[in-house]
Specification:
The protein is of the alpha/beta class. 43% of the residues lie in helices and 23% in strands. Strand 1, helix 1 and strand 2 form a beta-alpha-beta unit.
Amino acid sequence: MNTIKTILIVDDDEMIHRFFNLFLAREGYRITFSRDRESALHSINSQAPDLIFIDINLGDENGGLLCKDLKDQGNLQDIPILLISGVELSSDECKKFRADGFVTKPMDIRNLKELIKSCLF
C-alpha cells in the first residue's frame, strides 16, 4: 500500500513555504507548515510527520535547538529532521543538534528530491 508521506516545514519565511509547497505537492507529498516552535509542536502532536525541515534561523529562536529538543523526545527520535540554513553546516553542528542532515539555501531541486527520498524510503 502506497501511503502519502507528510512533511512538516518549520520556517518563518513565506518564500520558503511557497517553494516547498510548489515542489513537494507536485511530488505527491502532504505538506504542513509552521512558523515557530509552538505551532511546530502543535502540528507534530496533532499528526506526527514523516519528515521535518527546520530553518536554523527561526525568527528569535534557534531552529537547531528545536531539532535537538524534538530528537530528545523518545517518541520523535526516529523522525528524520533536516536543518535549513543559508550557510553550510558542519557535520559537528549537525551532530550537536542531532539533525539527520541539512539543506543549504538556495536549494537545488534535484538534490533536495534525492535527500527527501533517502529520508523517507
